[in-house]
Write a structure and sequence with these properties.
The complex is a heterodimer of chains A (about 350) and B (about 325).
Chain A (H helix, E strand, L loop, with lengths): L1 H19 L19 E5 L6 H16 L3 E5 L6 H14 L3 E4 L8 H9 L3 E5 L10 E4 L3 H16 L3 E7 L5 H13 L8 E8 L4 H14 L3 E6 L2 H13 L7 E4 L3 H4 L12 E4 L2 H17 L9 E3 L5 E6 L5 E4 L4 E4 L3 H4 L4
Parallel strand pairs in A: 1-2, 1-3, 3-4, 4-5, 5-13, 6-7, 6-8, 8-9
Antiparallel strand pairs in A: 10-14, 11-12, 12-13
Helix pairs in contact in A: 2-10, 3-4, 5-6, 7-8
Chain B lengths: L1 H12 L2 H19 L6 H26 L7 H17 L6 H25 L4 H20 L11 H6 L12 H19 L1 H11 L1 H6 L4 H27 L10 H11 L11 H17 L10 H32 L1
Chain lengths: ~350, ~325
């Protein structure tokens, strides 16, 4: 499966290159093989105990270490921007070369990250972005458009082309969630989706108790609901659990973005709560963040629109325009988990 | 007969639980008016099942608040004990649901005993001690789990079924809700009619007097923190069974819901005051708020603020009603 993703990545890169009409290998990453051990790169996750962030951090660590540098993984004590600001200030004082951050708040980190950049530290965001002023570029697992398109098509397919559907999100302030939902709404203004009716966007705050309440309320308030689309790991699992416990498999279908291990129970052959869902390879997200930072410190990459660089894995990445006015590096389209492949992925993450 | 009726009425009017019950009833009726699917057996069953954890955990918090202490580490103990017990089930050390529950309660009890030791022997203020320990327990949860979740497919199916069936009460009510009811019944008896229960109240309302009268205050303190830990362990097992998932950040922030439930239920943060029935009503109020908010069609963005507003209003109404009752009682005494 990883080969498939790699293939998809390569195809996407080729496409991006043609689109940019820029010769490849304008920059050379050849990181010092022996490494300059004085260079330290840090990654700040959203919170400890988030397996998705953990995998990102492991990819980051692996790529940094492979290039011969030192990697630091920092977990904030709480899922708040304040806790992340403390960590950023620590890293600035420590004088690291680069910081990759999965933001808990889009704007709240601005002062701290700007101070870091003023101190000469390269800053990128990954997973959940910070505002364009607070970063050099953003590492995006998949473009907002690509995720939204995949989700929109899934809703279209699973409803059979018409009927009521709802979104179950995480918190109402999560920047990635909101970007996907907005783009999905935009795409679904198209003619193909005209018979679909989005009844509500509910927020479960990535807590089981609240997500269960929200799912049950959706089922009760909208008796004709056909699909619940949950672009968040706890939400999609909680919704699938409610549907399964209520014996509504096949009547109300769940899809969205979820962790294969959490969702394995609700996927598979026969009538299940979730026939298929999407996610990407978080290890790759962490790796690309590492490549970009290393390139920024040792190469010519500044995060400006249209730049390209070839990473240590041989792939060439392009800096493209992000929806929020800044720039981003997109890794690839989301990956579909289905009844056929869930069994092998559930042990991965 | 008439005087008996009169005294019953007086007793009712003077009871702090009555005002709580009224607040809860008004809340339920208000929600029912907005959405008539609320007061149905399905919704209520769903609500009790989903909030059996919060309602049960409130008992542990109550016992700590009664002696004038506080324990903000209960949610982390919940996560730690639930996670440890789940990991052992995942790794096939045991398969029985009962054993899993016992292990979780045991680990929770140990956590609680540690809290009790730090507070009684270390002479640390409860809020500081539990603030430190809440981080230690949460951190320990990340470490033992390697920050990975125990997912639904890794649990025994009997364990997952347990949270969805009615076997314990022979088909009457959901197993988790049944556990909650049993806990409340046992706690009611302990608090009302046993020497231990009364001593908890004594330590809370006047520690010096309690000490002079020969009560070992430290022993009582140690006991209530241990009880709170054991309840956290029990709730950890219930949580993982209910959602068929053990996450290291599970139950984060639940201690605040539980404290709110106790305070709405009339438990004094200064200790010595509060009843099991009051806590039950307070916890039910929290459950109704959580369950009802998505049902009444208010904007998603307002729900959190409205939750806070309802909690505050409930407490204010409760305080005012009690003050009025006390005034009336005083008046009657003068006559």
């Amino acid at each position: 499966m990883r080969k498939l993703i790699a293939l998809a990545l390569c195809l996407f890169t080729v496409f991006a290159l043609v689109a940019c009409a820029q010769p490849a290998a304008t920059t050379d990453t050849a990181a010092p093989a022996a490494g300059d051990a004085s260079q330290t790169y840090a990654i700040i996750t959203k919170s400890a105990g988030n397996p998705y962030n953990e995998r990102e951090a492991s990819g980051f660590e692996e790529a940094i270490t492979a290039a011969g540098y030192t990697a630091i993984v920092k977990h904030p004590a709480e899922i708040t921007a304040e806790a992340q600001i403390t960590l950023i200030n620590e890293l600035v004082a420590q004088g690291v070369s680069g910081i990759a951050v999965a933001a808990n708040d889009k704007d709240a980190l601005e002062t701290a990250l700007k101070a870091a950049m003023t101190a000469g530290i390269k800053v990128v965001s990954l997973d959940s972005s910070v505002n364009p002023a607070s970063r050099l570029t953003h590492i995006n697992q998949a473009g907002v458009q690509q995720v939204a398109q995949a989700l929109a098509d899934a809703v279209l397919d699973l409803t059979g082309g018409e009927g009521d559907w709802a979104i179950l999100s995480a918190t109402s302030t999560a920047s990635n969630q909101n970007a996907w939902i907005e783009a999905q709404k935009e795409i679904m203004k198209g003619d193909a989706y005209s018979k679909l009716n989005l009844v509500e966007v509910a927020y479960g705050d990535d807590e089981y108790q609240k997500s269960v309440d929200q799912t049950q309320a959706l089922l009760q308030n909208y008796p004709n609901l056909k699909v619940i689309c949950a672009p968040t790991t706890v939400g999609i699992a909680a919704a699938s659990k409610v549907i399964t416990d209520a014996g509504l498999q096949g009547k109300v279908i769940v899809t969205g973005l979820g962790l294969p291990s959490e969702m394995a129970e609700f996927m598979g052959e026969g009538t299940v709560a979730c026939p298929y869902m999407f996610l990407w390879n978080p290890i790759d997200v962490g790796r690309v963040a590492a490549y970009a930072l290393v390139e920024m410190v040792n190469g010519a990459l500044t995060g400006e629109l249209g730049q390209t660089f070839t990473a240590a894995n041989g792939t060439t990445y392009t800096v493209t325009e992000a929806g929020d006015g800044g720039t981003e590096i997109i890794i690839g389209p989301p990956f579909a988990f289905t009844a056929e492949n869930i069994a092998e992925w559930k042990t991965v993450y | 007969m008439q005087s008996q009726m009169k005294s019953l009425f007086k007793k009712l009017r003077g009871s702090r639980e009555l005002s709580l019950f009224l607040v809860l009833a008004i809340l339920c009726v208000a929600v029912q008016l907005r959405n008539n699917a609320f007061l149905t057996s399905k919704t209520i069953n769903d609500m009790l099942k989903n909030y059996s954890t919060t309602i049960t955990l409130s008992l542990g918090m109550m016992s700590v608040l009664l002696i004038g202490g506080i324990d903000i580490s209960v949610a982390s103990s919940l996560a730690f004990s639930g996670m440890c017990a789940s990991l052992m089930m995942r790794d096939g050390i045991y398969t029985s649901t009962l054993v899993m529950f016992l292990v979780s309660v045991g680990i929770g009890l140990l956590c609680g005993m540690l809290v009790g030791l730090v507070i009684t022997q270390g002479k640390v203020l409860p809020i500081i001690a539990t603030l430190g320990l809440t981080n230690i327990f949460r951190g320990a949860t990340y470490i033992v789990s390697g920050s990975r979740w125990v997912s639904a497919y890794q649990f025994q199916s009997a364990f997952k079924q347990f949270a969805q069936t009615n076997t314990l009460s022979f088909g009457l009510i959901n197993n988790l809700v049944f556990i909650t009811i049993v806990c409340y019944a046992v706690f009611f008896v302990i608090m009302k009619w046993t020497r231990f229960g009364r001593r908890i109240y004594a330590v809370g309302s006047n520690p010096e007097a309690a000490s002079v009268s020969g009560i070992n205050i430290n022993a009582i303190k140690f006991a209530v923190y241990s009880i709170a830990g054991a309840f956290a362990g029990l709730t950890g097992a219930m949580y993982t069974a209910l959602y068929a998932s053990a996450q290291s950040d599970m139950g984060m922030g639940m201690e605040m819901d539980v404290i709110a439930a106790c305070v709405i239920g009339g438990v004094s943060l200064n200790g010595g005051q509060g009843s099991v029935v009051g806590v039950l009503l307070g916890a039910l109020t929290m459950a109704v708020i959580g369950k009802a908010l998505p049902l009444i069609g208010v904007s998603q963005f307002w729900q959190t603020a409205i939750k806070g507003l309802i909690i505050l209003t409930a407490i204010i109404i409760n305080v005012l009603a009690q003050r009025m009752m006390r005034k009336n009682a005083l008046k009657e005494r003068e006559i």
